[in-house]
Amino acid sequence: MEAARAKDTKERLAGVERLHEVLDVAARRGLTAAEVTALVDHCMDLTRDANFRIAQGGLQALSVVAVVAGDHFKIHLNSLVPAAVERLGDSKQPVRNAARQLLITLMEEMYKHMGSQFHEALQRHNLPSYMMSKANLKETA
């Protein structure tokens, strides 16, 4: 994970690739609460990167963590939702797509664990109406 924090862009991109490899392994064995916290903190740093590929990779990694982490993930929602919503306004389409996919993944995964509490958290952050309609459809399904 340290390579993803390097000053050199190529090293950071290689670090993001290694992060995704680590997440592939974690998907098979699961994650502890401490590992989830470390990954979320690390990925949040990546989502703020000026390089759009690195920011996109951080958002995509968060989507994977959301699926693998289960209940350990819900304590991070208060920081993740606003960060993802902020990246919906990014100038690069791949970052906007990754942010939208993260929000959809959060909706699907968190409904399994929290139901209406997650819907209320989304409403507090003024998500665009098309995102809320997807959340409403998932809730009634």
TrEMBL record:
GO terms for cellular component: spindle
GO biological-process terms attached to the record: mitotic cell cycle
Database matches in InterPro entries: ARM-like, ARM-type_fold
Protein name: TOG domain-containing protein
Organism: Zea mays
The organism's taxonomic lineage, starting at the top: Eukaryota, Viridiplantae, Streptophyta, Embryophyta, Tracheophyta
